[in-house]
Hints:
Blueprint: H1 2-9, H2 11-31, E1 36-40, E2 49-53, H3 54-81, H4 83-91, H5 96-119, H6 122-125, H7 131-156
Antiparallel strand pairs: 1-2
Helix pairs in contact: 2-3, 3-5, 3-7, 5-7
Amino acid sequence: MLTLVRLLRRRIVLLMLLVVPSLFAAALVLTTTARPLRFQLAALGEAVFVVVPQRHEGLVFICLMAVGLLTAFLALDLVQRDAAASRRLVLCGYRGGELIAARLAVLLLVIAIVAACVSWLQPVFFRPGRLALVVLGLALVGWVYGCYGLLVGALVH
């Protein structure tokens, strides 16, 4: 829990949680229109075309990018920030597995927070039919990119 508190105390983290989704949403508004787009989803078959407004489709990708960027950065910071403290904890008798499990638990909580924050942007543009599934999808994307951030943080450090 202390790791989560230390992570959320950093000004850059709080700034990124507010600024990154806002900048991405502003870029979306400036670069898209309400013109409908037709595209084909492989899961629905070749004869079925989906028609959605350009801005709604762009919002899905913008939300995915925001969650991916934020969780990768936070995971990277999570690994690199307390590396010296982790070494001292291992020397004091804590198992490495316990420390990794604690970091993963904090990462899961951070991913849930980021997915919830980014999903709050969606009702500004449109209300998804299945908001819970959208938040779950954002959380899964956050998990993938968070693991990439953990990997890069462990390799670079």
